[in-house]
Amino acid sequence: MAQINPSILSADFARLAEEAKAVEGADWLHVDVMDNHFVPNLTLGVPIVEALSKATDTPLDCHLMIEDADRWAPQYVEAGAGSVTFHAEAAAAPVRLAREIRAKGARASMALKPATPIEPYEDLLPELDMLLIMTVEPGFGGQAFLDIMLPKIRRTRELISKHGLELWLQVDGGVSATTIERCAEAGADVFVAGSAVYGAEDPAEAVRALRAQADTVTASAPWACGH
Ligand SMILES: O=C(CO)[C@@H](O)[C@H](O)COP(=O)(O)O
Ligand SMILES: [Fe+2]
C-alpha cells in the first residue's frame, strides 16, 4: 500500500501540534530540517522535533537538509524521530551513519538531490530502509514537480528489485493529485506532500485521496509489498 507523508513545512508553524493532529491517519509526518547552509532556508531543529514527537502519535519522518549530517542525524533519533533521512551530499561516512541510525532504533534513509545519480550508491542500498529521490531542488515547499526525475525513480526501483531489497522508495517535492500517479508508475511507494495536503480545505481527506490515487497504481505493481 502506498504511504503518504504530509510535510509540516507547509503547515502553520505557530500551530504545529494542531497541524500534526490535522493529518492523523497519515503514515508518517514529514519534518523538513533546514540549516540555511545545505539549503538557502532555515526551519527547525532538535528541540522542535522532540516537542512534536510528544504532540502526535504519527511517527516522524525527519528529512535533514543540513551540513555535517554525520554529527547531527543521531540526535534526531534521540529526539524521537522514527525515520531519519540524511543527504548523500552532506554525509562524510554514509554507511557508518546509516548503521548508527539503525542501532539507535530508527529507520535509516538517504536522500539524493536532483543532480545526484543513484548509480554510485548501488552497493549501499542494503544499509538503508528508505531512499529519497528529490523531485524539486530542496529548500522550499510549493515548487513544481521535476518530471526529469522520473527516469531516476525508475532506475532506482530496478536496482531495488534486482537486489531483492525491502527498501522503501520515497519521492519529495511537487507531489500532488496531478503528479502522484506518474511517481507511482515509475516505482515510488512513499509520497511526501506538503502544499497538496496543507493547502487543501481538509488535510486528512487530502491524505486519503492521495493514498487512494497512488494505490490504483501500486496495488498492481510487481514490486509492491504490504508495508
Ligand atoms: O523537502 C522538501 C523541500 O525541500 C519538501 O518536503 C517540501 O516540503 C515538499 O513540499 P511540496 O513540494 O509538497 O509543497
Ligand atoms: Fe522534505
From TrEMBL:
Substrate binds at residues 7, 63, 139-142, 172-174, 194-195. A divalent metal cation binds at residues 30, 32, 63, 172. Binds 1 divalent metal cation per subunit. Its EC number is 5.1.3.1. The active site is at 32 (proton acceptor), 172 (proton donor). Its cofactor is Zn(2+); Fe(2+); Co(2+); a divalent metal cation. This is Ribulose-phosphate 3-epimerase. The lineage of its organism: Bacteria, Bacillati, Actinomycetota, Actinomycetes, Kitasatosporales. The gene is rpe.
